[in-house]
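chain below, 311 aa
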Amino acid sequence: MALLTPAAEPPASPGPLTPHGPRVLLSSREDQLDSTLALRRVAAHLGGLRRTGWSELEPPPVAALVCDDVAATERLLDLGVPVVHLESGRCGPAAAGAPPTRALGRVHRPGWLPSCGPPDRGARPTGVLAPQRTGRSRRRSGTLLLLSLWCVPDAEVAPFASGALRDLAAAALRRTGGCTVVADTGLELLRSALSAHPAVRVLRAAEVDPDALHADAAVFLASPVLGALALAQARRAPLALLPPLGSAQRDLAGRLAEVLPLPSADDPADPALWEPSAAAGPWHLLDPALDDLRGAQRVARTLRQLALAPL
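prediction:
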């Protein structure tokens, strides 16, 4: 179940937290791809801390990391728990529901990406939230299709699933020998649309490790979202962007085009889509001074400081 209310139980631990040490609560929106990726990547740097769930709030944890869920942040603050509130998938003011200023606000914002406006008052840009492990398998195979349907209107989802997605999945099976679709929501609709191709795996992002799946994949197709961009940038891996769905993805795709010439996955018949160059792709075009992959470490450091020296 997606963590839509603070009372929901968070997913299994995404990082190597220990059974000892200060208790911290980690929470994200399971229906938002960027949110689950951000939580997992920060948690990987929290060794030595002990995770607690929403059902274990007595006594309260010493600190919490909340990705995107404003209601959860407000509840924890009301309980007296210091909170690092991380907004994982935008770079400007929130469309609705700004996090409380009592929380320590952080915003996932790559330094090289053209800004769409200042962050909320008190929120600090993090730099890229990269995965802890940047290596890839030498025997990569198949296609990973990382799809975000978060906040995408239903009128866009169904035509995409039965049209472009179905064609891309069929081509991926033929060209690369396998296809794994990882999505944040809309799983039933996606499985129905892809039922003619039973070899295609359709997985829920909150229940798997997309970063690990990427390490084993030969081809990477993804929605234009920050978590997918960070993954390809950190590993200097080829990436083709799926057609943007919803206003947020279209906005990000437009700003991204100002900086990086990433190919589009809009023609399944294009051989180049299934035989990506072994080169580093466009990532070498980034200004080295702005090519900062330490965002997850920064957020983890802030949470650790709260846990070890609570306010």
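Confidence is low (pLDDT under 50) at residues 1-17, 91-96. The CA atoms of residues 166 and 194 lie 6 Å apart.
thats it, cya
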